[in-house]
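Changelog-linked ticket: adenosine-5'-diphosphate example.
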Amino acid sequence: MLSIQNLSVSYGAIAALHGISFEVGPGEIVTLIGSNGAGKTSTLRAISGLIKSRGKILYQGRDLANLPPHEIVAAGISHVPEGRMIFANLTVAENLAMGAYLQKDKGGIERDRQFVFGMFPRLAERRQQVAGTLSGGEQQMLAIGRALMSRPKFLMLDEPSLGIAPILVKTIFEKIVEINRQQGLAILLVEQNANLALEISRHGCVLETGQIILRDSSAALRENPKVRAAYLGGV
Amino acid sequence: MNRLTSALLAWPKAVLLACLLASLAFWLISDRINPYYMDVLTKIGINVILAVSLNLINGYTGQFSLGHAGFMAVGAYAAAAVTMFAGPKFLALAPAAWLLPATDGLFLGALLIGGLAAALAGILVGAPSLRLKGDYLAIVTLGFGEIIRVIFRNIDSLGGALGLNGIPPYTNIFWVLAVACICTYVVLAMVHSTYGRGFVAVRDDEVAAEAMGLNTTRYKIVAFVVGAFFAGMAGGLYGHYTLSIDPKGFDFMRSIEIVVMVILGGMGNTAGVIAAAVLLTLLPEVLRPFEKYRMIFYSLLLIILMLTRPQGLFTWKRTLKTAGRA
Ligand SMILES: Nc1ncnc2c1ncn2[C@@H]1O[C@H](COP(=O)(O)OP(=O)(O)O)[C@@H](O)[C@H]1O
Ligand SMILES: [Mg+2]
């Protein structure tokens, strides 16, 4: 479905990604783990067209590298940015409407909205609430819901567990699995805290200073001593 | 621009029409009202246009601009040039019986040309906003305002440093209130539409907005162009009211005054910004007896307000008011 080939990103003179390659199959959850500054966010931003990159981003056979973000969204790729970048001054409903920005059919938008509300009943209860006043976990739900409103076939999540109460992290990961199953959505999940991520994904890649140093099934990665020491808290 | 036009048309037009009729009715009875009050009201109206239009740029879209007086100057000079230089020839063509409507038409045309000239300047100033943010953008827009002043000071055909005198007295309370109504209508209709929530989205989080597929570049430019257009109209109204304009009248203190109205009213809260424009126009009038201490009073008041109500004097629930129509 998505095939990244030799992708590089630099910020001025500083290289953040040194030609990484990996693949995400249809309906598959793939985890990208790596410590702070490894280049996880840069990878997602390059795919979304938010930053310039070199290399190939093949999506359903088409190279999307360096297309403007709205074309990437239109192609069916949606990005839940790091740090829950919701629109703080818009209501929950308005945030969702912005997610459907490129959708034109009212009926379809309403169906997507009902799907999101079904997935996250908390958002339905708070639809008229200003998003900036939601809790961290609710904001993350909103960010995911907003991304779903663009009717993606491929969803990218940047550290959805960051700064969220552990109990909510579990809920959110369950929802990610549910979305994956119900909609057959392929998901690229970026995490620093890799325990849960490797539990719900089929494959994983380990990113270190802009290079992929390991690629394996998630089960194998969970058993890998190096991964356990560096990313699973040594358990 | 399709979504933008439909957004403008979707908002209740009856309200706008009622406001325009009320402006007309008010003008009809205006000669029975104390001229001093009319003077203050005219100034209030012009300041409302300036503040509401700046609020689109600074408040809703979050692009901190200090160049509003510059846009006003462009509009004022362009409109005055039309009525002073092209006006007499145009009116000479009109048959005697048609002189009044021809004059009104001339003035409307002059105001629109002033607005369009300012909108063009808005594109020029909006372009840096695509790369610059916050303080940097503020400095660039401030520089723009100063450059505009220097340019007008050096155009001899526009009076140079002395400015233009003998501008025809075409501004009346109808024009002022009508433009204020249209400006408010346009800004509200824009930001309350699905299209227009994009302005707030750009302000709240530009990267996320871009990731949703919004064309953030276009939003910023549209905000600058529409904001500048109405500032230009306000400039035209101002020039044809004071009957003389000079570059000094559009210095950066004027821009600051408008920014203060926006901040005091609450960034992105149109009703609050209108209230602040009214209040800050009235305040110097009320303080007139204490002429000497006026500026101290004024500054103190602003400091106290900013310390106690940093979110704006008239904003309670949320920083930006866009709720209402889903
Ligand atoms: N906007 C930026 N400007 C310059 N350097 C950046 C920028 N964003 C990220 N970097 C650098 O790129 C590298 C990768 O960052 P990032 O992709 O954010 O990593 P991660 O998401 O894995 O923490 C880091 O060294 C970081 O300092
Ligand atoms: Mg990151």
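Closing comment: Example verified and attached. Confidence is low (pLDDT under 50) at residues 319-326 of chain B. Chain B touches chain A at residues 194, 197-198, 200-201, 203-205, 207-215, 268, 317-320, 322-323, 326 (CB under 8 Å).
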